Every structure is written in structure tokens, then in C-alpha cells.
Amino acid sequence: MTTTLPPSSSNAPPITQVGPIAWMRKNLFSNWLNSLLTVIILTTLLNLLVSFLGWATTTAQWQVVPANWSLYFAGRYPAAQFWRLFTVLGLIAALSGLTWGVLVRNVPKLFDRNVLIGVAIVAVITVLLPTPLPYRLVLLGIEALLLGSAWIGKKIGRAKPVVGQWLPFVWFLSFFVVLWLIAGGFGLPTVSTSLWGGLLLTVFMSVVSIVLCFPLGVALALGRQSSLPVVRWLSILYIEIIRGIPLIAILFIGQNMIPLFLPQGVRPDNILRGIIGLTLFSSAYLAENVRGGLQAIPKGQTEAANALGLNPLLVTSLIVLPQALKISIPAIVGQFISLFQDTTLLSIVGIIDLLGITRSILANPQFIGRYWEAYTFIGIIYWLFCYAMSWGSRRLERQLNTGH
Amino acid sequence: MELTETHKPMTQFSDREKTPFWRDARFLRIAVQALVVILVVVLISVLMGNLNQSLRQQGRQFNFSFLFNEAGFNIGESLIPYTPNDRYYWAFVVGLVNTLRLILVGFVLTTVLGVIAGIASFSENWLLRKLSQVYVELVRNIPLLLQLFIWYFGVYYTLSAPPPGTNQPNDVLFGLAFTSRRGIAIPWPANTATSFVSLVLLIAALVTAVLLWRWRLKLMEEQGTSGKPQLIAMGVLGAVGLLLLVVGLGWQVPQLNQVGEPEGGLRLSLEYTAVLSALVFYTGAFIAEIVRAGIQAVSKGQWEAAKALGLRSGLVMQLVVFPQALRVIIPALNSQYMNLAKNSSLALAIGYPDIFSSATTALNQSGRAVEVMTLIAITYLVINLVISVLMNTLNRTVQIKER
């Protein structure tokens, strides 16, 4: 038995299929439930926005931010030595520019529209910053330096593509120069680590911990995958114990117990103990991320490399590890982002990072109760850093993607 | 020996026999492992030697007898009776109960929030989709500790500031909830026999409803019945359940008494509420991402096939996609629950007396860093182990049964 459907002539003709009204019908008011949701969300959001704007323009006392610029960014670093920090910033800007230029050397236009818009926004923000004029000029200069070195980097990269291979080495060397500039010694007046603070300390600690935890994490991941039972079980033991304990407990152990475990009289610096805690903690998580990548490499790769006569060390370092690391980039960068966020926990154990300095600013009777202003400000800083890292990881992933 | 060597022709076999031991894989494997063991043992014995020496110099020994000394410190809030005269071990137990109270409620709320936010990112509603994305991007990129301070100092502390000129608690929800520096009072079922019976009946109704639903599906599938009678029965059950929920539980709304203190209902401290909010919203964003990834992992054909059968998009998600996505979601949830449990130790920063905060107070008082930290490590390891075991059991029930 067959049934024939009546011709669907009763359907109303579509009203519009393009234009904002059609878009709204489709995306916001497709049925009564959606319409209700849209109305509720819109009212709530508008309400929040209006009250936030009202607060930000009238009640809020933003004085807590510009009055403490140097504290947020450099802690109690002596003001007479600020030029060293600006030099560090300039050095990093120049190196980043060079790297950027060399990496994109094959792109026809270095400064395309998006880049120009970004540069313009940053420049406008820099000009509008409520800081003394010389600082703003220096910051603009550093931005110009970044662009200039990017242009030079592209020229050099075009002329001598070999330069690209030397960049990691230059970055490695620059770390010691930066350390010398910040800490002093060898002709510069020494600045004790107890004076470092704010964003400077947050970034310094995260960079050092990231650099240290990476090789340790890779070694642990390889150890966990090793065919040697002793190595494998020790790695598993370490990884699982560390992953079972909260970071704050590890930092407490670092602060209270590292001196007990060391010979009499050896008492590492407060900041060094913090870095050790962060590194030991992060490497266990990093090991798990890298292990994910190692497990994703088909066994055929190892077997093919063995058949070519490579010894186990070469098989790992030339064939397996590069592929595994490439796969695990998103997870690794995610771990770096959480490490960056985890530096805030150091403020609980008495290290004055960005959050720690904000808490001491808020304890100042002059700024008491200005929680929202100060926390919004540092929240934006943290957000920008983390978002930039995840954006960079997505770019890197696309760059290294050799799949089809 | 020499005789055999001279007589034997140079075969590959004899070549391999003469492999020098430093290139012999069997030897190398053992040597490397022995080296690692020696290194680790030396490292540990040096560290332990130093520890022993340090402890001896401070005139202490590694033992846990201090747990039976009088604690002497106060604990702000606790579900079980505690006085400063109690022993250290009891202070730890009180802290542990506070931690469990935090993480168990946190698990439920963060799962609900995360699943809703994850599903919302597939909504047909553009605004809802964007809202979910903004929530995830905002919360994941700001440190948890900062969020905790924002919740505590920015939200709850500000909300609970007494209105100028009065000493009354703030009315924050049309007379249903009040905030003051002493905590947040919310409506809560009365602590009477009637409400207890109602609760039991409510759970029984829920179980019956689930069984009824399964029976109905079975009948519909096997006998082709319409399933109407069962549906009506479920409707009646639902009405009874609603009645029990609204009337039977005996909700108590906090009322202000003469002094201006809220009475009745449930009072939660500001610290507890702040830590709970921070943990729930932070972990919820990660769970939302996991749920989103899980749903994306379900192949597009499943969506299309379900739609072709004429299911509405809500039903497609509920009946076809989400059950399959669960297989991807549950293993990943495990680590998020463990993170929530570990992050609950941040409660220390705003003074909620969880186990870590009890432990640090005990550490500062007794100076027994090694013992206290060992206890803390073991506690969190056990908590994580339990979570792991439970989640793995759950995972086994959800995975496809293969033979």
C-alpha cells in the first residue's frame, strides 16, 4: 500500500532569508523557548553592563591603579634602577621582533592589515596610559624597536635562512643577560631578590619554571614509557605522588622542609625554593601530557627507525620525540598556562608576586576596600598573558601542522 | 679454549659471542637500572641523613605522638563538635569533614554547571552560545586564587556590608535570603520527622519513576503498546513529588528577629560560600570544555540520522548524542574532580577551616613540619585515590560492553 503525501502548498512562503532580521529570527527567536531565553539573557546582561558602567564611571576610585604602577609591575625594585628593566624589555622586544621576522620570512607582506590594527591599538593604549611622559615615550620606543627588528629579521631571514637555527641559542644566551640586568653584579649594583616583585617576579618565576620543568617532564615521560622496570616504576611513583598532592602543599613543603633536607647552614633563597616547588609540581603534569603524545606515535615509527640501524637514543631523539612533542603542543601550552596561573599561590607562602603585591596594596589604609578596581586590573593582566599564550599555541600548531 | 677458537671458522655466531659487554643490550639494561637505583638510594639517604641531623639539632624525633596533645586553637565552623581543648587528631578530622563538605557539594554543582555550559555551546540560540564561550574563555584564563579573592572580597564581602545607618542584614532575594558578615541565610527544609519522611518518599518516587520509564520503554519496544497508562502514572507520581517537594519538606524561610538576626533556614559562612563559588565556576569552565569536546567527538552521522528519524534537536541531544558523548566525557571528568579536590586547599587563603588550614595551624603551633606534611600528603592521596576508583567504576558501566 502506498500513500501519497498531499502537495505541501499550505506552507507559508519564507519571509526573508538574508539580512539582519532573518538572522535574528534564525539565531535568537526560532521558537518560543529560544525567544524567552534571548529576552532573559539580554535583560540580565544589559542590567549587569549598565550597573558595571555606572560603577566604573562614578563610584569606582581607579586611583588605586595609577598610584601604584611601579608596585604592580616591579614590586619594590629600586626606582633608580628602572632603566635596567626597560633595557630588559627592549632586549626581549628586539629578540621577539627578530624571531617573528625570521619565522614569517616567506609571507609576502610582513605588516598586513590585522598586524597594523593591533600595533595601532597598542600604541594608542600606550599613549593614553596615565604614567609620566618619559615612560610612555620609552614604551613607544620599545614598540618601534619590535617592529624595526621584525623588518630586519625578515630581511636577514630572506638573505640567510640559516640564521633561524641560531635563534634558540640567542634566546638561551639572552636569559643570562636578562638575569644579569635584573639581579646586578659584574659592575651593576646588586638588587636583592627580596626587592623583586609584582609582574616582574610573576613572569620571571613562570619563565624559569617553564624552562626547567620542560626537560624534567620529558625525561619523566620517557621514563614512564621505558622498558626498564626500575626506571618505569620510579617515574610512575614520582608522577602519581606529585599529582595527588595540592600545589599549595608542595609549596609549603618547599618553604618549610627544603632547609631541613639540606646540610646545615644551606638555606636557598625564598624565590629559588618557590621555583623548585613549581618545577617539581609542573614536571609531573607535563610528563603526563608528553606521555599522551608518545603513546600516539605508531609503533611502526620505532620499528622503522630500528630497521635503519639507529640506536635507541637516536630513535627517541630523532624520530619519536619530535613527533610526540608536536602532537602534545596544545596540552603542553595548557600546562604552561596553568603554571603561570599557579604562580599566584606563591603569594600565600609570602612571595610578593603580582597577586601578593595587590594584596599588600589593598592592605594600605589609603586603598582599603578598593577590591574590585585592583582585582579587575590584575585580572585583565593575567587574562591577557594567558590568552596570548593559548593564541600563540594555536598559531604554532598551525605552523607545524604537516598533515593534509 | 684456544683450541676451539682456532678450529672454529669465523661465523656470525662467534662474532656475536664476542660482543664487548659495554655494547651488550642485556648488560646495559641491568647496568642502567643499577645506576639509577644507586643514584636514587644515595640521594634519598643523603636527604634523610640531613633531615635526621636537622631534627636532632632541634631536639625532635619523627613521630606522631603530638597528635594526642591538646590542639588549643579555635576552628571557625564545624559540622561535628569541636573545642580548643580537643586533641590535634580531632582538629584534623574536623578539617577533613569541612573539606569533604566543600568538595562533595562542589562535585554536584560544578557538574551541573559544566554540563549546562557545555551543551549551551551547541544551542541554536546565538546569545546563549556566545555566553557559554565567553564564560569559558574568561574563567579559564584568570588564576583561581584571584577568582577566589574576587568572590570573597568583591562579591560576598561587599554584599554583606550592612546598609548605611543600620545594623540589619542585607535582603538579597526578595526576603528569601539574607547576607551579613556572619554568613548567608537561605531557605532550607526543616529538621523535623515530617520533612525527613518526605525526603525518603521523594527519593522513592524518583526511583519508581525511573523504573516506570524503563518498563514503559520496554513495553513500547517489545509489545508496541502506546505507553499511555504508564505516562499517566508518571504524571501522578510527578504531581505527588511536586507536592512533597513544596509542602512536605517544610521549607523554612529565614526571618529577621527583633535583634535583626536572621533565624531559621540554613546559614552558610561567607568563606564557605566564596570557596564553593570559586571552585564551582572555575572547574565548571573546564568541564564545559570537556563536555563540548565529548559532544564534538560524536560523529555527525549520528546527529543526521537522529534528525532524519524526526527527533527534535533537544531529543537528539538527550537520547542519541549525549549518551555517546558520555563515554568520552567521563574519563576526562576524573581529573577535573581530582583538581577540584586539590584546589579546595586554597580555602586556606581566605580562612575557611579545611584540613589544609587545620594542618598549617597545627604546623605553626607544634613545629612538626615533616609529620604534618606527611599527613596532608597521605590525606589528599587517599581522597584522589577514592575519586579515581569511583570514577573508573562509573566509567566501566558507561563504556560499550565488548566481547
Keywords, separated by commas or semicolons:
heterodimer, A: 404 residues, mainly alpha, 16 helices, 73% helix, 0% strand, B: 403 residues, MetI-like fold, four-stranded antiparallel sheet, 13 helices, 8 strands, globular, disordered N terminus
Notes on the protein architecture:
The complex is a heterodimer of chains A (404) and B (403). By secondary structure, chain A is mainly α. Among the domains of chain A are: 25-59; 195-398, MetI-like (MetI-like fold, Orthogonal Bundle), CATH 1.10.3720.10. Chain A has 16 helices and no strands. The two termini of chain A are 50 Å apart. By secondary structure, chain B is mainly alpha-helical. Among the domains of chain B are: 2-57; 92-166 and 270-398, MetI-like fold (Orthogonal Bundle). In chain B, helix 7 runs antiparallel to helix 8. Chain B is globular, with a radius of gyration of 30 Å. The two termini of chain B are 58 Å apart. Residues 1-6 of chain B have low confidence and may be disordered. At the A-B interface, helix 2, helix 9, helix 10, helix 14 and helix 15 of A face helix 3, helix 5, helix 6, helix 11 and helix 12 of B.
Overview in brief:
With 404 residues, chain A is mainly alpha-helical. Chain A has helices spanning 19-27, 32-59, 69-74, 82-103, 113-128, 133-159, 163-183, 198-225, 229-244, 247-261, 270-296, 299-307, 312-327, 329-342, 354-363, 371-400. Chain B is mainly alpha-helical and 403 residues long.
Topology:
The complex is a heterodimer of chains A (404) and B (403).
Chain A: H1 19-27, H2 32-59, H3 69-74, H4 82-103, H5 113-128, H6 133-159, H7 163-183, H8 198-225, H9 229-244, H10 247-261, H11 270-296, H12 299-307, H13 312-327, H14 329-342, H15 354-363, H16 371-400
Helix pairs in contact in A: 4-6, 4-7, 5-6, 8-9, 8-11, 8-15, 9-11, 10-11, 11-13, 11-14, 12-13, 14-16, 15-16
Chain B: H1 2-7, H2 12-17, H3 25-57, H4 88-120, H5 126-140, H6 144-159, E1 170-171, E2 178-180, E3 183-186, E4 188-189, H7 193-223, H8 228-248, E5 251-252, E6 255-256, E7 262-263, E8 266-268, H9 270-297, H10 300-308, H11 313-343, H12 355-366, H13 369-398
Antiparallel strand pairs in B: 1-2, 2-3, 3-8, 4-5, 6-7
